[in-house]
Amino acid sequence: MIRAYRPDDLVALRRVCLLTGRAGGDATGQWSSDDLLPDVFLEPYVTLEPSTAWVVEQDARPVGYLVAAFDTAAFADNWRTRWSPVFAARHPRIADDPQEQWLRDYGYNPDWLLGPQAEAYPAHLHIDLMPAAQGSGWGRGLMRELGRAAVAAGVPGIHLGMARENLAALAFYRRLGFRELPTAGDALMLGIDPEALSWR
Ligand SMILES: CC(C)(COP(=O)(O)OP(=O)(O)OC[C@H]1O[C@@H](n2cnc3c(N)ncnc32)[C@H](O)[C@@H]1OP(=O)(O)O)[C@@H](O)C(=O)NCCC(=O)NCCS
Predict the structure, then answer these.
(1) Structural domain for 66, as ranges
(2) I need a surface site. Which of 59, 154, 188, 191 has the fewest CB within 10 A?
């Protein structure tokens, strides 16, 4: 079933984030700390925007989630004041690992969330399901929840950024009607009208 996020889901969902964080695959050991990915792509969302976080529960266990921020600019402000200090306390700056500096920078400073896409498509999301929960319609169901809530909130557009090499996720987003948005960065940006998601 799909239900609203609860704080006691956090530990299990952090694990989902890690196990799907390498372009859809297991990111365990990829970075110097396995906490970095959930500290950037999951926990700030459920902490700052818990009302737009949904969970897939199977056999009484959380196996997937969709987290979103409806107003990305306001969310970035909130992140700066409320999440950056938490992140910095967990992950002190290191000077000698340029490979992962970008990921730490994402935690310290949420400017990466802002861009032209956030103007026409002010909401954004992250979605991840454990491998055993994939391919059964849960992703579509989570997106429907998001679409309905976004329509009710009057959100005009939803975007997401993704690794270009995650072809399975790209096929999923395209199937649901997401379209590519112009971007100057490395990530692929996709966008959709919430109305289109709400009935899918
Ligand atoms: C991407 C993800 C969220 C999709 O959720 P899902 O539950 O597996 O997808 P669904 O079963 O709801 O599929 C919805 C539709 O997309 C299609 N689809 C899903 N994955 C697809 C794929 N790899 N290739 C082609 N079509 C695909 C399905 O066929 C389905 O269409 P249909 O209902 O018309 O048959 C999920 O697989 C996942 O979490 N993957 C790992 C983490 C990840 O990559 N997250 C995204 C990071 S950007």
Answers:
(1) 2-113+122-152
(2) 59
pLDDT for 56-109, tens place per residue?
A: 999 999 999 999 999 999 999 999 999 999 999 999 877 667 788 899 999 999
| Ligand 1 atom closest to the CA of 169, numbered from 1 | 1
Q: Is residue 179 part of a domain?
A: no
Domain for residue 11, yes or no? yes
Distance (Å, whole) CA 143 – CA 198 = 8
In a domain, 158, yes or no: no
- Residue 30, CA distances (Å) to 5, 111, 168 in order: 27, 24, 20
Whether pTM exceeds 0.70 = yes
Answer whether 146 contacts ligand 1 (Cβ < 6 A).
no
Structural contact between residues 133 and 21, judged by C-beta atoms closer than 8 angstroms: no
